[in-house]
Design brief:
This protein is mainly alpha-helical. It is built from one helix and no strands. It starts with a helix and ends with a helix. This is ABC transmembrane type-1 domain-containing protein.
Length: about 70
């Protein structure tokens, strides 16, 4: 029985190590995905702000030109 218990403990340790490694890998991947999403979203927001700013500036210029032409 002693040998069997030792073998089981060895298997348990292997299982624990494997589970820990898998969990760590999954957590790291999730974190990486979240960070990438945040970075991409921030870039999209920045681009959106720039586009809105450019559109607003162009609109102002058009309005000024129309006023000047009138």
């Amino acid at each position: 029985m002693g040998d069997a218990q030792k073998a089981l403990r060895g298997i348990d340790k292997v299982v624990v190590v494997v589970v820990v490694v898998v969990v760590v890998i999954v957590v790291v991947r999730v974190v990486v995905v979240v960070v990438v999403v945040i970075v991409v979203v921030e870039e999209v927001v920045v681009v959106a702000i720039v586009v809105v700013g450019v559109v607003a500036a162009v609109a102002e210029v058009i309005v000024v030109i129309k006023v000047v032409i009138k």
